[in-house]
Design goal:
about 0% strand; mainly alpha; elongated
């Protein structure tokens, strides 16, 4: 039983760390950079850009 609890705790800690890092990236403005690159790639695939 303790092994299940330990693995669940590790999963929750990893999820929290991921959310904190995503929030930090959004705070730095990385989301706009990634979105801009995604738009450019899509425009090239469609053939508009």
């Amino acid at each position: 039983m303790s092994r299940v609890f330990r693995s669940r705790r590790i999963g929750i800690l990893l999820m929290a760390a991921g959310l904190i890092l995503m929030g930090f990236g959004i705070h730095r403005g990385e989301m706009a950079v990634v979105f801009g690159k995604a738009v450019n790639i899509c425009m090239e695939c469609i053939g508009i850009g």
